[in-house]
Amino acid sequence: MSLDLPLRPELRGLSPYGAPQLDVPVLLNVNENPYPPSAALVDDVATSVAQAAAGLNRYPDRDALPLREDLAEYLARESGVRLPAGCIWAANGSNEVMLHLLQAFGGPGRTALSFAPTYSMYPEYARDTCTDWVAARREEDFSLDPGRAVAAVAEHAPAVVLLPSPNNPTGTALPASTLLAVLDAARQVPGGCVVVVDEAYAEFRREGTPSALELLEDHPHLAVSRTMSKAFGLAGARVGYLAASTEVVDALQVVRLPYHLSAVTQAVARAALRHTGSLMEQVASLRSERDRTVAWLRDRGLQAVDSDANFVLFGVLPDRVAVWQGLLDRGVLVRQTGPEGWLRVSIGTPAEMTAFREALVEVA
Ligand code: PMP
């Protein structure tokens, strides 16, 4: 007899989200930092976790206040924008931060809007919070035309706009003028609209590319999401955070689960924040490797999108599945994402990028 579960109809037949986790020598598919934590950081994490472990009979600090203070301090150093800890929110990866945003501001009868190609998790947050999902289009070159973006906001009257900058999978960042145009349009939406700028890859942006953090002061309906999964090389620890007005942060406090961020996670994140200097040196070398990769792909006659992130979208391949498989057969895993014909490669160590180039020469 078949089991009759009351699964929501929209979930029927769906597979869990996620890129394949394959045991391959060169992993360039999920935009991780390829460098494991330094010995000094591992030591610091071990000491901090041991201290946290001594108190594990108690629930963790529900407000994660020391961590939020450290994150505020980091943002002040990274971007020059000083915020009080009450304007910072932290959770288990920026995925959870953005789910909290949709839980607080989305919901039945409300719309979340983004511009495709965009981060593939956004429609999942929308689905899981029963929020209507609209993906308007970017231009052919993946840029976002401010006039069309404003028109889409006016047409769909979203409660939430999700703007990844730098965008995944294209690597392109939005100019401040476009962000300002969308923020202005959002202000006109009846009932209000929160604009989320997802800056998961902010630390990799090129000289002169702005951060939306600078716009927070004048825009209380702006929320800037960041993560420690990329530049900080802490994908395994699951720490993301948000900078926004206290009104937005207070709303997220209402929907979070009690004690959502474990004492161990908080300790690990605070330890990593003490090593920002050496981590940012790594970021600088990953940025150079990225620019070299773009130049090399173009030299080979392929298109490569200029990137402000730690990955490059390249193509256009007559058969991207065959190229993806050919690379995999040679021990290099990249991601099939974005429009047909394109592949995305994360920036690895110089040795990993050599392996990628050698494999690609054989297959494309
Ligand atoms: N935003 C974007 C644009 C991403 O690419 C990712 C990770 N791939 C995330 C958010 C989520 O990262 P995390 O949950 O690890 O912070």
Automatic annotation (TrEMBL):
Coiled coil: none
Pathway of action: Amino-acid biosynthesis; L-histidine biosynthesis; L-histidine from 5-phospho-alpha-D-ribose 1-diphosphate: step 7/9
Protein EC: 2.6.1.9
PROSITE patterns cross-referenced by the UniProt entry: AA_TRANSFER_CLASS_2
GO biological process, one term: L-histidine biosynthetic process
Sequence positions bearing N6-(pyridoxal phosphate)lysine: 230
Family matches, as SUPFAM superfamilies: PLP-dependent transferases
Subunit: Homodimer.
Annotated source species: Cellulomonas bogoriensis 69B4 = DSM 16987
Reactions accelerated catalytically: L-histidinol phosphate + 2-oxoglutarate = 3-(imidazol-4-yl)-2-oxopropyl phosphate + L-glutamate
Family recorded in the similarity comment: Belongs to the class-II pyridoxal-phosphate-dependent aminotransferase family. Histidinol-phosphate aminotransferase subfamily.
Cofactor or coenzyme needed: pyridoxal 5'-phosphate
Annotated gene: hisC
CDD domains in the cross-refs: AAT_like (cd00609)
Name of the featured protein: Histidinol-phosphate aminotransferase
InterPro entries named among the record's database cross-references: Aminotrans_II_pyridoxalP_BS, Aminotransferase_I/II_large, HisP_aminotrans, PyrdxlP-dep_Trfase, PyrdxlP-dep_Trfase_major, PyrdxlP-dep_Trfase_small
HAMAP family according to UniProt: HisC_aminotrans_2
Keywords: Amino-acid biosynthesis, Aminotransferase, Histidine biosynthesis, Pyridoxal phosphate, Transferase
